[in-house]
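Friendly challenge for the regulars: who can give me the C-alpha cells for this chain first? No prize, just bragging rights.
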Amino acid sequence: MMRKLLYSKINESRRVQSTSNIPLKVALIYSLFGYSWIIITDAIVFDPKTFAFNIVFQLSILKGIVFVLLTSLIIYYLLYKGISILYQFWLKKGKSLGKRRKCTDDS
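First reply, four minutes later:
Bragging rights claimed.
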C-alpha cells in the first residue's frame, strides 16, 4: 500500500513537471521561428549590398523583434494559465473520483 502511494506521488510530480514546461517550449519555438523569419525575410527584401547600414532595415528588424518578444510572452502567459486551470480541474476531479471509489470500495 505504501509503495503504491509513493509511486503515485512520484508519477504525479513528473506529470506536473512535464506539463509546466509546455508553455515555455511553445513560446521558445515560436520566438525562434519568428526571429528567423524576420531576419531572413528582411534580408531578402532589402538590398544585400547596403542592408547592414540602412537605418530602415535596422528599425524594421527591431520592430519585428519587439513584436515577437511581446507575442511570445503573451503566448507563454496564456498557455501557462490555461494549463494551470486544467491541472487544478484535473486534481479536483481526481480527488472527487478517489472519494467515490473509496466509498464504493468500502461498501
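Residues 101 and 107 are 10 Å apart (CA to CA). Residues 24-97 form one domain. Your move, everyone else.
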